[in-house]
Give the backbone structure.
Amino acid sequence: MAGREAPAGALSMLDSVVRGTGRRLAAAMPWLDGPLAELRGRYAHLWLRYAQWRHGRRHTAPIDPYRIAWVDPDRIEYVTEPPDLPRFRWAGSVMDGDWDRSGRRFVDTDVYRAFEAHFQRDLEWSETAFFDRVLGEIRRGEQPWGCDSRAALERRLRNLDRLYERIAADGFRTQRELAADSAYDDPVGSRRRSVYDRLINDEMAIDIGRDGELLFADGRNRLSIAKVLGVDRVPVVILRRHKAWVAFRDRVADHVAETGVLPSAVADHPDLKQFEES
């Protein structure tokens, strides 16, 4: 056990060093921000590959934290509470507990309601409860989305208008596709250099609950746009899986390995169809 857990301990120590030292160095020497971001990206990639290896030692069904699944946004109904971890540490995790039973519907969030009001009922952003909440956070000294003023928030929302128009015209693209197309003007484009960083940090993300429910984890702007537009499918990465779902997933993988057939009852599940494809 100690030998198997040693890599996790070493990576956790590295995590503390990279994040803590990196923040101090960036504050003292801003010109180091680019190299430090690259270092953090390399560390995150190393952690994710370790998580993939560790999962493979414990479970029949493998995981790939970078795998893209295409799902119907209407299947993403409820929201989970994120763990107190950086998103890359969340990816590929298996957790027990009741985190998948929040009962909060995505369409009841003030973010989604603001998108619906703005794009379907032509309300100004400033007329929404979402705008008031975010502006209140800014006035308390917080910086949601990196916005430190009302003017910065309004610029951010104008970019969301452009994002909506772009997706309405061109559809959804994966972060890999966006990174490969230098001519594509993404209004809220990522500044991350590595495609791996973009996949794990910027792609829309879901968790999977104990019964296989697709639960919203991250990427509320793009999911809101998808639901308002009524698109048929969106690209997502899977971050966290419930322990009970992983046990079921292993049994399905065993069945496919023995019979070569994915049971029809679960054939359309985005976390299972890969077994038949492979």
User: Anything to note?
Assistant: The CA atoms of residues 179 and 195 lie 6 Å apart. Residues 1-6 have pLDDT under 50 and may be disordered.
